[in-house]
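Entry type: protein chain
Record version: 2
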Amino acid sequence: MAIAKAERLMNLALCLMNTRRPVSKRELRASIEAYHEIGSDEAFNRMFERDKDDLRELGMVIETVESLDGEIGYLARRDRNRLPEIALDAEEAAALSLAAKVWQQARFAEAASGALQKLRAAGVPFHDEGDDDEGVREPSGHSALEPRIPTPEPAFEPLMVATRERRPVAFDYRKANAVRPEPRQVEPWALECWRGHWYLAGWDRDRTAVRVFRLSRITGRVRTRGGAFTTEVPDHVDVRATVASWAGEGATATARIRLRRDSGYPLRARAVETLPVDADWDELEIPYGHGLDAWLVEFGPDVVVLGPDELRADVVDRLRAVAKG
């Protein structure tokens, strides 16, 4: 049915654009084969009005002209339905090429590849070398090293659609070191890839606060919910800054931990200061921000929190929760 409608709309658009005079509904009905199957005039009029509205919603400019004898005709002038010339510099073309890479592992791969083919035909500076399996080529003048943005998480596609359509979602989410996932109801705002992982930022309805979710920790199916958002979406959602703050990056406070020798290299890489204690332990000063307790728990018995007291208490609580199962 979808293919039949698309073909009918295409034929209607071609009829309206390939005539120099307004065409009446009667003439259009006789010219377009899909309209021949419509039995009653009333059914045809309803379908024609829907088709005409659909074409206008897609951006087509259709004029309505009344002839001297009172008959209504329709016309889509080519000069009013022509896109402006596409002019992209090398950096803009590179950005479009990289954006198309996002869809290579989703069902939008064919559409993304087709879009780049159209840009290439319009004169955008892409070359023919370095084709990948999907037919997406990198812009000319750029390195043969091709950046990739993987989207392996099953939650990516439904969340991307829900974010675009502003539809609330529900899913089960397992926090770091949690024994079992918890149900979440979220108004999705934006998706962003940061340090090899995809994150969703949005409004957590149950916690009535902004939250960031790592897609790899979403379990099961993402379910869309009816109704509108209950909170206003910010003009700009900086997912990366939010993730960084929850990871403790850019924090003004610091924490002191004891770390077992030859372990915890990610912690050592971020340490402000490192002092040897004995043959088995080092003492580190590290940035302290939201989510640091969850990160420290991941290192298990190799980390001992010295301070501040609230961080030590949070880590102990998490470890006890894991021990209880």
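Comment: Residues 44 and 285 are 75 Å apart (CA to CA).
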